[in-house]
Design a protein that fits this description.
single chain, 144 residues, alpha+beta, 6-stranded antiparallel sheet, 5-stranded mixed sheet, 11 strands, 34% strand
Amino acid sequence: MDFLTSMPASLICAILCGILIFSALVFMLISWNENYHAYEYWDRISGFMELVENNISYPLECDEILIGRHASADIRLPDLSVSRYHAILTVSEGIWTIIDIGSKSGVFVNGTLVKQRVLRENDVINLGNRRLVFRRRMEEEDVY
């Protein structure tokens, strides 16, 4: 007599459900681990930076960020002194660079007109009449 045919159907069902639950738990653990390491990797690459203007924080969460007045800009600054497509921020191995992409009023870093500049923490960036500070993002536990 075959082993499986001699077992009650409910027992087979319980075993299969257990295997399915175990597989789901393993999948969830692997996903969590991958997400955790991806976050650590992005933190290492990006330096966990943000732009801040008048207590408005713009987290820098991708490796290329378009800044401008246009609705399609990643960081939208609705001010006529800011060009539609004013500047691009890029990051590579933790080094952020700002590049003027043909704006009318220019990009100023710490008061100096630049076409391209590597940014350092607490640099002040002026785009038209807007003043942004480049800084390390504050963690929630740092606030309290």
